[in-house]
Amino acid sequence: MVTRTPKENSVSPLKAFAIQCEHGGCTFMKTMLYKLTLKKRMWVSFVLLIAISIAATGGLSFYISARVIERNTFQLSQDNLNTSARVLDEKAKQILVSVLNIMISQPFVQMSKDSAAGKKDGYYGHMTAMNSAFTQAKLAEPSIESIFIATPIGEFYSASYYRNQGYSFYDSPLYEKAQLTKEPFWIEGHEDLLFQGKDRVISLVMKSISDSPNMYFVVNLNEKAIQGMLSDRHTEKEDQNLFLVNRNAASVLLNQPNLPKSYDKAFLEKHIGTSLRGHFEVGITEQYDLINYATLQFNPDWLLLSVQSRSDLLKDLSWIQWATGIIMLVCIIMAVLVSNVLSAILLKPLYHLQMLMSKVGRNDLSVRFQSHYQDEVSQVGHKFNSMLLEINELIDEVKDAEREKRKSEAKALQAQISPHFLYNTLNTIIWKMETGELDNSKSMVIALSQLFQLGLNHGEEWTTVEKELLHVRQYLTIQQLCYEELFDFEIVVSSDTSQTLPIMKIMLQPLVENSLLHGFEHMESGGKIRIELTSDNQQLHIVVEDNGSGMDAEKLQLSLNHPITEKKGYAMRNVFNRLQLYYGGEATMVLSSEPFEATKVYITIPIKGEV
C-alpha cells in the first residue's frame, strides 16, 4: 500500500485560490442565469448564437485569408530573394572574370615575371600599362570601386586613386587571413584603408595565379552600389526589410537597417543551420515576423534575409475584422428585435397561463385556460383546467366536511355544558321547591326550557343577535338564581345594531360561563358581567367583560392558534376555532386582563346580512 505524505496530498494556496475563484465564478454565472426570465434567456440565446456564428465565420475568413496571404507572400518574397541572390552571384562571377582577365593580360604577365625575378626597375612602366586593364574592369563592372595588386616589387592600382601610404597591405589583417586560405574570400563592409577618402567598400581578396609568390588582388566594391541594387529590387515592399548578413548575424552592409537583436547567431543556427534557402515564421519579437532567406553561392557564409512584419502584412485584412464587428453588431440588434417579437408570440400562451395562475392565487377558481394551439403549453393549460376542477371538487368536499365539523363541535360543546349545568340547575330547582320558593323555581324551569329551545335552534347553525342575546340572558338568569348575590350582569346593544343580524349560535354562553367558573371562583359576591354589542357598516363588535380574578391573557392569546392538551382555556379555544370555521380570517378574538378590574374578550365578526 502506497501512502502519500502531507506534502503530496496538499494543494498549493495559489491553486486552491484558482479553484475557488473558478467555482465562485461558475456559481455567480449560474445565479445570474437563474434570475433571468424565460424571455431574457431567449434573448441571450439568440444573441449568443448569432454572435458566435458571425465571430466564427469572420474569424475563419480572416484565418484563411491570412494563411493564403502568408503563403503567397512567402513564395513571392522567396522568388525575389532568390533573384537578388542570383544577381549578386552573377556580379561576383563578373568581378572574378574581370580579375582573371587582368591576370591573363600582357601587362600583368610581364609584371608577374619581373616580380618573380625581383626586378624593380620596370615598376613605373608596369604601373602605366596596368591602368588600361583597371579601366576595362571598372567598365565591365561599375560596382568596382578600386583594384589593388600587392607584389614584392611594389603596389599597382589605378592612377586616379590616392594611395594611403601609412597603411601597408602586408601588415594588415587582410594579408594575415590571405595566408590562412588559398581560396578567394570576401570581407564585409568596412572603411577602405588602402586609399584616401575612407569610402565604405566590400572587398574580395584572392591570391594571384601567377608563379610570383606573395602576389595578391584586392577588389573593392562600392557598398552603396550594392545596397542600392538590393533596395531597387524591393522598393515595392514597404513593409519588407532586406538584410545582407553573415552566419554570425553580423551585417555585411553597415548602411542597411540593423537586424533585430533577437536574430543572433544562435537564432540563425536554430532556424537556418546549413540550409541554402527557405522561409519560416517566428514570434520572438514584439510581433510575428515572416522571414525568407537565401545563401549566396559566391560566399556561402553570407545570407540574404527578408523580414516582414505579419501585422503590417495583414493590415489590409483589418477590414474583415471591422466588417465582422459591424455585421455582428447589426445582427445582434436584429436578434434582440426578432427575439423580442418571437418570444412575445411564443410566450403569449405561457403569459396567459401565468396570469390565470395569479388569479387562482387570489382565490379565483373560476378561471379557465383556452387556446387553439395543441403545443406543450396548451397541454399544460388543459392539465391546469383539470387541476382546477379537482380543486373545486375538493373544496366542496372540504366545505361539506367543515360544515359537518361545525355541527359536531356545536353538539360537542352542548354535550359538554349540558350535563354539568343541567345537574346544578335541577338541584337548585328542587332545593328552592323544598324551601317554598315556588316563583323562583318556576322562573328557573321557564328559563331552562327557553335556553334549550334556543340552543337547539331547530338544528340550524346560525341564529340572530336577538336570539343569541336571549340565550345568554336565560343562562345568566339561571346562574343568578343558582349563585345568589354572586354577580350581576348587564347587556348593552347600541341603537345602530340590528337584532336580526345573523350570528353563530352559542358564542356568548361559553364566554360568560368562563367568567363564572374561573373569574368568580374565589369570590362570594360583587361579580359583574357586562356584554356590549356595537356595529358599523361592515363589522359587528362584541365585548364580554368581567371583574374577576383575571387570566394570563398573553399566554392564552398565543394558545388560541396552537393546539395544546391543557384543559384550561378550552372554552376560549372552542369559540375561537368555531369563529375561524364560520368566518375564516375575517373574524378576530383579542383577550386582555387586569385582575379584579377588567378582563375582556373582544370579538369582531363580519356582517353577513339580515335573516
TrEMBL record:
Gene3D superfamilies for this protein: 6.10.340.10, Histidine kinase-like ATPase, C-terminal domain
CDD domains named among the record's database cross-references: HAMP
Keyword line: ATP-binding, Cell membrane, Coiled coil, Kinase, Membrane, Nucleotide-binding, Phosphoprotein, Transferase, Transmembrane, Transmembrane helix, Two-component regulatory system
Record's bilayer topology term: Multi-pass membrane protein
Coiled coil, from the record: 384-418
Membrane-spanning ranges: 42-64, 319-347
Record localization: Cell membrane
Entries under InterPro entries matching the protein: Bact_2-comp_sensor_kinase (IPR050640), HAMP_dom (IPR003660), HATPase_C_sf (IPR036890), HATPase_dom (IPR003594), Sig_transdc_His_kin_internal (IPR010559)
Boundaries of every HAMP domain copy: 344-396
Name of this chain's protein: HAMP domain-containing protein
